[in-house]
Amino acid sequence: MEKFILDEERLKSVEDNYKAIKSRIEESAVKAGRNPDDVRLMAVTKTVESVYINRALDLGADLIGENRVQEYLSKKDELHLHGVEKHLIGHLQTNKVKQIVGEVDMIESVDSVKLAKEISRVSAMKGITTDILVEVNVGKEESKSGIYIENLEELLIEISQMSNIKINGLMTIPPICDNEIEVGKYFAAMYQSFIDIKEKKLDNVNMDILSMGMSGDFESAVANGSNIVRVGSAIFGARKYF
Ligand SMILES: *Cc1c(COP(=O)(O)O)cnc(C)c1O
Fold first, then answer.
1. Does the model's pTM come out above 0.90?
2. Pocket test for ligand 1, best of 17, 44, 141, 219 (most atoms within 8 A of CB)
């Protein structure tokens, strides 16, 4: 294993970045005529060492997102997680469900009946209910997971009939766009289906959370109704993959 060397400058920049992102979220909410308290900041912690994550947590971050089951499980004991909500945001394989159910407060990346069934089954076995979001592939990209908007309602209805699993809303990662106007179209389309489904008042389908917006586009997401923005590199710096 490589020896870990603490980067003091990076530690300081996490603090500056975190505060700056918080105020940019507030500003964009106000600009959009929204209550800033309605938009939560998720610190996305994939590939980030615990000491930097803890700096954000100590500054008041109360929601973190991890992509990989194994990575989260190996870091969690080092994290200052008291009172912090943990979400899984990365693609989840059915064979990993057993390990993560009960370990996080929400799984944001549910995009198939098969995965939902396994979450339902494992949750029942553990005697708990697992909160989820359904991930939407708003740009219909082959490379991305998520359900297409036209198949969303059908998936929601199927999942809503399963036990021990609770739908809370939607999550998306839009295509990479050149500018705010382009990406804003995807966010607006997501917001529209979020509202459409909410208005249908489907049984056991709660539409409270719309998780969208990352480091490069969270302001546009806030302008388009997001209530969780998932920000990684703009807080912790560029990711190093090992
Ligand atoms: C990595 C990741 C993010 C954060 O990305 P940044 O561009 O670093 O802010 C958000 N959501 C998901 C699902 C991710 O995998």
1. yes
2. 44
